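Re: the 155-residue chain
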Amino acid sequence: MQLSIENANLDLIIKVCTKAKSNNFTTISEYLIFLVEQDLNANRKLSEEYIYSIIENLINLAIQNRKDFLEFTMQELYTYCIKNEEKFHYPKWSNLNRSVRIILGKKFKSEILKHSKKVEKGEFYLKFAGLNINNSALYTIERVNTISANPLVSL
């Protein structure tokens, strides 16, 4: 069975060809296979281990790069890590399914609350700082000045 493009739009075909060429594909077929695989990867369900691996890396990289963050969302942190960290080998944010991004956000918030209870005096931790206008959780990076850290209460 052979597929055809009904009412083929020349502009669309040109855009696909240009995009394929700019991404170093030699044929349109290679590029279309790549797009299908990318879509499949974006929509696959991530394992709990993989999600916690992402979150652990995000927390560590946020603390390591704390000078670059005053107040941030998890999406901003994730995007920063994709662009700036060689050791952050996870899918681009835009390639993740919406449900996966929501799960990541919820588990991230939960993990930073757990992480903040384990830090000791002088160590840095991520603190929930409220919500932005889009109802996304905002975070800051704080240093523990007392024996225990409560991320919901300012020190």
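The chain has two domains: 10-43, 48-143.
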